[in-house]
């Protein structure tokens, strides 16, 4: 597959799966009843932020597979993607904030490890993961606050 086609495949797959998981695990009435911290952002913000992040995540994944061919980055990228896609079903689908926290903390650690390993092997991918790390750190804090308040 050519570079442009494989990049388009990564972007379409990551964004498409992410949006599908979000669509299948909407917050709903249950989430509305939860006590949330003062720093909880408005619900409308999550979809555009995640869409932009998924594009960056997809490009970094494409680079791991097609540009750097680094097996460590491939493994870490795949692991963080699995944890990322597991969080919404755990938190929203199962309606279990604690289970969500038990997914998001290893996700954050995996993202940090990807950045650490990519910083020399592929600095571009490491940089692309920085906004993702910041957002997941914030989401981890939000998830922990929801567990504490409920």
UniProtKB/TrEMBL annotation:
Transmembrane residue ranges: 7-24, 44-63, 75-92, 98-116, 128-149
Main location: membrane
Pfam families xrefs: TspO_MBR
Keywords annotated in UniProt: Membrane, Transmembrane, Transmembrane helix
Membrane topology: Multi-pass membrane protein
Domain of life of the organism encoding this protein: Bacteria
Biological process, per Gene Ontology: tetrapyrrole metabolic process
CDD domains, per database record: TSPO_MBR (cd15904)
Protein localization: Membrane
InterPro entries in UniProt: TspO/MBR-related_sf, TspO_MBR
Gene Ontology cellular component terms for the protein in this record: membrane
PANTHER family named in the record: PERIPHERAL-TYPE BENZODIAZEPINE RECEPTOR, TRANSLOCATOR PROTEIN
Similarity-based family: Belongs to the TspO/BZRP family.
Protein name per the record: TspO/MBR related protein
Organism expressing this protein natively: Paracoccus sulfuroxidans
């Amino acid at each position: 597959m050519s570079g442009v086609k494989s990049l388009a495949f990564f972007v379409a797959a990551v964004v498409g799966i992410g949006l599908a998981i979000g669509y299948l695990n909407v917050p709903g009435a249950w989430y509305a009843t939860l006590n949330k911290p003062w720093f909880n952002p408005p619900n409308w913000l999550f979809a555009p932020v995640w869409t932009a992040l998924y594009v960056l995540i997809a490009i970094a994944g494409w680079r791991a597979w097609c540009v750097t061919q680094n097996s460590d980055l491939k493994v870490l990228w795949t692991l963080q993607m699995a944890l990322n896609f597991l969080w919404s079903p755990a938190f929203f689908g199962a309606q279990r904030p604690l289970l969500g926290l038990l997914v998001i903390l290893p996700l954050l650690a995996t993202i940090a490890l990807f950045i650490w390993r990519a910083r020399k092997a592929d600095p571009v991918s490491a940089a692309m993961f920085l906004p993702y790390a910041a957002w997941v750190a914030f989401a981890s804090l939000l998830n922990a606050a929801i567990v504490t308040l409920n």
